[in-house]
């Protein structure tokens, strides 16, 4: 929590932990205000590694703000309080703003937790400030995020709410002076910020990209499948072609073509021919040769169907099971 004001001030910190026995000093969390020449103001902070969980949800911090500038009067501007998550704190006290070039989300998270703490003329206000913690996983814009495999940047931030609770000035001055053993003669008690976790639950949100390369390919594949199914419904499946991209491209093209040619040629690699003469005009030897060539051709076609078009392994397994049953 960062505080900025035109007049010099001091912050007193006290903490009340469960089971609420008594307050203890927590001044180790306070960074004393320093003068910022560029903005002509003073800037101080409360910084701690306080973790919100079920054991610490009832812990209460009180920050009492005291103006030490004698020229101060109630009509001056309000103190500006800015709160950020300690795990993702990019606030620069010397600039009184965020470091670097903050993203729109960082800017909005910062501005939503920035408050102006005013002081009435006759009252002193206790500002009841509660907060909840959220962890935002933001996608890093790289090639993986467009492919559908994003990497994330962890950005914890807080959401808060503040409620003013006025008290008579005299009552508050006495309570503060007695609890801190100081005189308020030369100082002005400004007010108190009392804060506590609104819930021990830490929410988590993850950014997702609706359109990626993989989702686009899925859409195109779905359209192609629908058109193909509609075409088959109208015109039938057609011929089965075993020629794919792999068979047509190097280095598989030559190997596949050679394997296909070997399956369709005889051992002597001679030109295949079939006798077309009438059977009664052929000798017995020629008829046998012609029959042998026809059988070889049928075997090559059968092998071609088995290797490239029709998978007969299921039929073969059925025949094997059937033969075993017959034998038994």
UniProtKB/TrEMBL annotation:
<protein>
    <submittedName>
        <fullName>4446_t:CDS:1</fullName>
    </submittedName>
</protein>
<keyword id="KW-1133">Transmembrane helix</keyword>
<keyword id="KW-0175">Coiled coil</keyword>
<keyword id="KW-0812">Transmembrane</keyword>
<keyword id="KW-0472">Membrane</keyword>
<feature type="transmembrane region" description="Helical">
    <location>
        <begin position="213"/>
        <end position="246"/>
    </location>
</feature>
<feature type="coiled-coil region">
    <location>
        <begin position="281"/>
        <end position="308"/>
    </location>
</feature>
